[in-house]
Amino acid sequence: MGWFRHDTDARNDIKMRRIARDVGLAGIGAFWVAVEVLYDNGGTASESDLRDELDFIAPPGMLDVLAQYGLVTITEGFVTSARVQEEIDYQRECEQRKSEHGRNAANARWSNARACAGMHEHTDECPTMPDDAHDATIPYLTKKKDISLSKDSSISKEKVQLRFTKPSVDEVQSYCTERNNGVDPESFWDFYESKGWKVGNTPMKDWQAAVRTWEKSGSRAPAAQRKKIVTDKVRRSESVNPDGTLNLLG
Q1: What's the pTM?
Q2: Residue 80's closest CA among 46, 56, 53?
Q3: Which domain range does residue 136 map to?
Q4: How far apart, in whole angstroms, are the C-alpha atoms of residue 206 and residue 196?
Q5: Considering only 24-38, 166-180, 220-234, which range has the smallest mean pLDDT?
């Protein structure tokens, strides 16, 4: 079953107006039946078959009436219609354009894929072509790209960070000497070692920044963390109270 465009102003065509005036709507209906038969048969139908078709819905001789008004043409036992043939040619042209567009699009995809494969062979940036890449009707898949950080990347650098490694006492000593800040390296190291190298509840990201914080606070831990941490490496200091009892300092 095919389809064709129905001209919305067909009723205003001079030929259609004349046949409607002379034979009524039966002529209009007979014409559209003839159009369907012609279209389904590629634009040409047997005269005898079309007469048999019209005899069911219209008065005898209606095919001759259609030919008389120039709506169809009867030649050597076959019926044609210029308007139907025009529509068939239009549909074929549309199909050809669609097919050509599909081939061009497929060729462009494979051309880009081959060019990419040539420049970046075996990289995740290129489309993955199937073995039967010559078949342009098969869509190709793309590998999932790895997100990397570059100069032009909009990805926040905070999402890509180096793994923190706690420093040695010697490294802290070297940094404090370099800055001449008076921070006691061993106190600094012992303090954060006891806290699991965390700043509050957050894992430390930059121990040098923590050193600078101590530097600003007078060689001590920040104000919120000034409670002295007692470890095996920190001795307890004792003094005697006025009443003679021992007082544990710190």
Answers
A1: 0.36
A2: 46
A3: 87-142
A4: 14
A5: 220-234
